[in-house]
Every structure is written in C-alpha cells, then in structure tokens.
Amino acid sequence: IFLPSFQDLFGVSMVVPLMNLHIKSLGASPTVAGIIGSLYGIMQLFSSTFVGCWSDIVGRRYSLLACILLSALGYFLLGTSTTVFLFALSRVPVGIFKHTLSISKALLSDLVSERDRPLVMGRFNAASGVGFILGPVVGGYLTELEDGFYQTSFICASIFLLNAGLVWMLPWSEENIDSREREQGKKRTDNFSAKRDCDSHLKSLTNGAMASDSPFQSPWIQIATVLKRIKGIACSDLWDIFLVRLLMSVAILLYYSNFTLALDERFGVKPLFSGYLMSYSSALGVLAGCLLGPITKLYQHNTYRLLLHSSTFTCVLILLYASARSIWMVILSSTFLAFSTTIGRTCIIDLELTIGGNEASGTLLGVGQSVTSVARIIAPLLSGIAQEFSPCGPPSLGVGLALAAILIMNVNKQKYCSNGNVKLKNQ
C-alpha cells in the first residue's frame, strides 16, 4: 500500500505543475483554464463521497483497481491532448475517480487496530509526501525535452498501470478483514442513523462490504446502499468534526494562498526562495509523519487532545507569520507549521474513523475529502477579498477561522473525551 501511494503522488506531481503551461500552449485563455480547473474541483467535490461509499459496498480491492485504471485512462488522454477540448475531456475520469489515496487509507483502517492507526497513517502520508517532493523535479527535467509534457503524461499513466498490477498482487485476505470489522463493530455504537438499523436488507449489504461477490450485485442495489450510507452520515452527530476540518483547511489554504506574492511585497523575497521554502516545509512534513508514533504515545493515544493542541499551535504559527517583521520569523513559522499541520491532518482523519467506525471508513474519508474540496473552492475567494486590504489579510483571516475551530473543539470536548480517551457518542 505504501509503494503505490508513493508512486501515485510521484506520477501526479510530475504532471500537475506543468498543466497550466500546457493548456496555455494550446491557446486557452486564462479564463478557460480557470473554468477547467474549477470543473475538476467540482467533480472531486461530488464524487469523493460517492466513490468512498461505493468502496465500502463492493470492497477495497475492486474499487481501488477501478479508480487506478480509470485515472490511468485520464492521464493517457492527457498525453494525447492536442486541443483544449481533449485536455478538458482528459480531466473527467481523473476528476471523478482520482480517489486512490482515500481508498488506500480506508484499506489501512480496515487492516490495523485503532491504537496503531495514527502511526500507520503518519507513515502512509510520509511515503506519499516523498513522492510529492520528487515528482516536480523529475517532471521539470522531462518537460525540457521535445514533447516533454506528452512524455510525462504517458509516464504518469504507466505508473498508474503499474500500481494496478501491484494492488492486484497484494495478499488480500478479505474474510479476515470482514471478521475484524464485525469484531470492532461489536465494541462500537452505530453513529449514523437509527433508521438504518430497521432496514435489515441494506444493513446486510453494508456489513458485507468486503464480500467477494459484492461487485456483481445489481447496480441499483449498490446505488441504493450508497445513498443510504450518505444519508446516514448526513443525519449523524459528526457535524462538529467536519466543521473543524473545514475551518482548519480554509485557514491553512489562506496561509499558502498568497505566500509567494506576500513574501515579495513584504520582504522583497524572490519566487525562487519561496519555492525553496515550500519544498523545505514539505520535507519537514514527511519527517513529521514519521514522528507521529512517539507523539501519539506521549499523548497516550488521546487523538482529540492531540488535535486540539496541534490546531492551537497551527493558529499561533499562522499569527506569527502574519505579524512577522523579518524573513527569519517566516522561516521559523514555516518550520513548525509543517509539523503541526501534518499532525492535525492525521488526527482529524483518525477521529472521524474512531467515531464513525471502520464499517464505513470509505464513506467517512469520502465525506472528509468533499469537505476539503469545499475549502479549496472557498479559500481562493476569501483570499482575494482579504488581500484587497493587506498582503497579511489572508493569513490574518485564517487565524480567525482557526480560532473558531479551536472554540468548537473546546465546546464539544466533553462529548469525546472521558478519562483521557475518545468516547464514542450514542444516538
């Protein structure tokens, strides 16, 4: 699982930084390029929950293979895109099915215990982060060659095909996964909808998410089960967790939204230095993922308290950046922010899965991805408005949103913490 995730982000990060240049070379205006980019984000927004829930129903193996192969098709089409229409068409399968990392996280959640989950998720994010660091370097080199963008796209598609082969050869033990889910389900209160317990047919389909014959069920039954699960999430008592995720995501995106421009206006720093600083932060984020194990042990596996402290630290660091008087204060805040944001991202996912239950891990991760997609849509708009007032406007607004998230966590603290451990909510 770790190797395909590394190769996934390695391949994608080779191509994505070059896409704006390529669509411009095809004759697209900035407006058209922006519309295509927005459509991709909108497809991700609506498809992430559906695909994640679908993986709960048909099983991780088949859903992961389908997403990898259809993403490979999208990048193959991108490698043949000689017109703006073909470029836009190539983004459709990727926009709908590029949820391979979310399904991989759901699979890891099925395989490991709740106690070990933050450690494993941290290492998974670290492996993915290494691919994201190396990919742009290789992509920048390849694009210097003749027809470099097309070659890079075909290499990315080939990497996805290789990943499909690796996933197919994994030593799957679906019966063991299913039994583990049932055992964990006995220890956990169902957090979705009380109505769900009354529908025995759909419940049996849900609990049998890893059954080998699930992919061959009627598509209508699969769709009905997906909608049932999504309704269960909508009616659940998880709203505060997802709201915290939304607020913190927007706050962090506001920090990065005008990072290069703000450093130029405030300190006269060139874009090259800003790029090095962001790469430095990414490398530290990988290191933070490797340190999650000792940190969670220090907190006695109290995910909620660790999330509260990391979010508070993130808020303080964004404030430090917004009020920085020298570039050294910016470097200091970027150094520690890489740790706090990596820890916070892992904690919020672990908390969602702990409260919601592994029986619907794909659905929960899909909803979480949708929440992050909403943040990506909102953040540029808020950044543009805040930047009208000051280069420090976006991060200052981010501080306010982070404070709101911290307040929500403090208000709901008693719902989740009891004797130092996460307490599951009853419905």
Question: How would you describe this structure in keywords?
Answer:
globular, 2 strands, mainly alpha, 427 residues, Growth Hormone, Chain: A, 79% helix, membrane, transport, transmembrane helix, two-stranded antiparallel sheet, transmembrane, disordered C terminus
Structure description:
One of its GO terms (molecular function) is transmembrane transporter activity. This is MFSD9 protein. Keywords: Membrane, Transmembrane, Transmembrane helix, Transport. The protein contains 19 helices and 2 strands. It folds into 2 domains: 1-171, Up-down Bundle (Growth Hormone, Chain: A), CATH 1.20.1250.20; 228-421, MFS general substrate transporter like domains (Growth Hormone, Chain: A). With 427 residues, the protein is mainly alpha-helical. 79% of the residues lie in helices and 1% in strands. A two-stranded antiparallel sheet has the order 1-2.
Cα(first) to Cα(last) distance is: 35 Å
Query: Structural class of the helices, strands and pairings?
Result: mainly alpha
Helix content: over 70%
How many helical stretches?
Answer: 19
CATH topology type of the largest domain = Growth Hormone, Chain: A
CATH architecture of the largest domain: Up-down Bundle
CATH class membership of the largest domain: Mainly Alpha
Give the CA-based shape.
globular
Q: How much is the radius of gyration in Å?
A: 22 Å
Describe the main β-sheet briefly: 2 strands, antiparallel
Please indicate the count of domains.
2
